[in-house]
Write a structure and sequence with these properties.
alpha/beta, globular, about 270 residues
């Protein structure tokens, strides 16, 4: 039954993957998986209406390119993992939730790292207060951009101070962030981009729970089922479509040798004239 469903989903999942690679705003993440006891990686790419899962043997840049495409279209939200460093930092958005954890760690040290970490956390608090207002519609987009300008300057100054005077670990992080400083602020200038990677991390949790219960998969065919069913279920829920109805229709189409129903957003029905 798994393989029948997997075969029925092959074409619509491939179509959805092509669609994902050409969307203007995407987020990506990855987590561990097991196939026949060996470590592989479950990747995810999220758009507003389609989410793609892929099980690949690598966590490196090659895996990210296979998921996202060799040529990146639009903006990509990620964490600071080096496997994404091949992406031009200008359309990339680094996750501020990950940065917050880093700055908390700085603040818990002593001396200069603690001072800089606390200063970073103060800036981040202001940043998210402004972001929540613009997201909720209580702050105009243009006013939001103006309000962020002094914060971008403050962050740049703090990064330079960290490189100059903090401990070795903080200096390394500071140098890394300075190289990709522009990727801290893509969400300020590109509509639809968020300052965190939460939209990719949330649906990945479902897969993590599955992995913990099942200890992974025992064959390549089982892994293929995992990536296809996760793609279908997550995408359908994003679009508020009934999962069981879709899977039934896809399997019926496969039995009849008809084209499978698409996972892409359904067109809105035409408005009837009064």
């Amino acid at each position: 039954m798994e393989q029948a469903v997997s075969a029925a989903l092959a074409a619509p999942v491939a179509e959805a993957a092509r669609y994902m690679q050409h969307q203007p705003v995407r987020n990506a993440d990855e987590t561990r998986w097991r196939e026949k006891g060996k470590r592989v990686w479950l990747w995810i790419s999220v758009t507003p209406v389609v989410t793609i899962f892929r099980l690949l043997k690598t966590r490196g840049a090659a895996g990210a390119k296979e998921l996202l495409g060799e040529v990146v279209w639009g903006s990509i939200g990620t964490d600071r993992y080096a496997g994404y460093h091949w992406i031009d930092p200008r359309p990339r958005q680094l996750c501020w939730a990950h940065l917050q954890r880093e700055f908390v760690a700085w603040s818990e040290r002593t001396g200069e790292p603690a001072r800089i970490g606390l200063a970073f956390l103060a800036v981040e608090k202001q940043l998210f207060a402004l972001w929540y207002r613009v997201r909720d519609g209580t702050l105009a987009w243009a006013d939001f951009q103006v309000a962020l300008l002094p914060l971008t300057t403050r962050v740049s100054t703090l990064l330079q101070e960290g490189v100059a005077g903090a401990d070795a670990k903080a200096r390394g992080t500071g140098r890394n962030l300075l190289k990709r400083e522009v990727a801290l602020w893509t969400f300020v200038w590109e509509p639809g981009v968020e300052p965190t990677n939460n939209c990719a991390e949330r649906p990945l949790r479902r897969a993590v729970l599955w992995r913990r219960r099942s200890f992974g998969t025992q064959s390549a065919a089982g892994s293929q089922f995992v990536e296809r069913i996760l793609t279908a279920v997550t995408t359908l829920r994003q679009q508020h479509r009934n999962v069981l109805d879709y899977l039934t229709a896809a399997c019926m189409a496969a039995i009849r040798k008809d084209p499978a129903p698409s996972l892409l957003p359904l067109p809105s029905p035409p408005l009837l004239a009064r």
